[in-house]
Specification:
disordered N terminus, 4-stranded antiparallel β-sheet, ABC_transporter-like_ATP-bd, ATP-binding, 286 residues, ATP hydrolysis activity, iron, Rossmann fold, ion transport
Length: 286
């Protein structure tokens, strides 16, 4: 590797034969996954399928009942906490901020893994925090207590903290929660920019199928604790796959903007209209 290569190409993350459970309730059984290095991976699936559980295990927030998560080929459970935190960042679902903490203080906590006995706060840390606030449009909130913000504002602040960490691996669980559509697109654009600029390996659990297809280099579809399909969205997203994973009848069209698959649900009260109908109506009124 040369010095010019993106730093995000240095680290690998995979899970082998994972069994994951809460108490005695098994959620994932014998699942293996390799997060493509330097790409954007989107993990989709119905509620309760194990998406968030899998992400928690990959981030070492949940210890597997069986199997192993490997960070750079090492059992992540044996890697010191600080070392993991300087390589891998995680934004879990519904994080909780300490009472009264300000936005700047919370975002600054993303820099704590980089501190140490002989490494004190410096200009690089200031730059990382300032950049994270800027790209998430939270700079104007810098002095406000986090607990006084709206849901969407809080979510952007948590994302800023994750970005301030400046890790080569970034895992985000439903980061678009509480965000309106414009801010969802802005966030996913931001993550794509980060990936393209720095080579950061990014894995995101996302509910919106069309946004997942649009932004994913690699798509992972889960159901009942298993991976049902994975690969490029254009190669794996079909009506049959949507039916198998989501129990949903749908057409899969070509997104006119991105060229990626676009899922159009077919509800019980909707029947696909013949494609010639609109043309026929125009001709009949001519």
């Amino acid at each position: 590797m040369t010095d010019d290569e993106p730093t995000g190409t240095r680290h690998t993350l995979r899970g082998e034969h994972l069994r994951l459970a809460y108490d005695r309730r098994q959620v994932v059984d014998d699942l293996s996954i390799d997060i493509p290095t330097g790409g954007v991976t989107m993990i989709i699936g119905p509620n309760g399928c194990g998406k968030s559980t899998l992400l928690r295990a990959l981030a070492r927030l949940l210890t597997p009942v069986g199997g192993t998560v490997y960070l750079d080929g090492r059992d992540i459970g044996t890697v010191p906490n600080r070392e993991v935190a300087t390589v891998l960042g995680i934004l879990p679902q519904s994080p909780v901020a300490p009472d009264g903490i300000t936005v700047t203080d919370l975002v600054s906590r993303g820099r704590y893994p980089h501190q140490g006995w002989f490494r004190k706060w410096n200009a690089e840390d200031d730059d990382a925090v300032a950049e994270a606030l800027a790209v998430t449009s939270t700079g104007e909130l810098a002095d406000r207590p986090v607990d006084q913000l709206s849901g969407g504002q809080r979510q952007r602040v948590w994302i800023a903290m994750a970005l301030a960490q400046r890790t080569d691996l970034l895992l985000l669980d439903e980061p678009t929660t509480y965000l309106d559509l414009a801010n969802q697109v802005e966030l996913l654009d931001l993550l794509t920019d980060l990936n393209r600029r720095s080579g950061t390996t990014i894995a995101v659990v996302l509910h919106d199928l069309n946004l997942a297809c649009r932004y994913a280099d690699h798509l992972v579809a889960m159901r009942a604790g298993q991976i049902m399909a994975e690969g490029k969205p254009s190669e794996i997203v079909t009506p049959e796959m949507i039916k198998e994973v989501f129990r949903l009848d749908a057409d899969v069209l070509r997104d006119p903007v991105s060229g990626t698959p676009m899922i159009v649900p077919i509800g019980r009260h909707h029947v696909a209209a013949p494609t010639a109908t609109i043309t026929d109506e125009v001709e009949n009124t001519a």
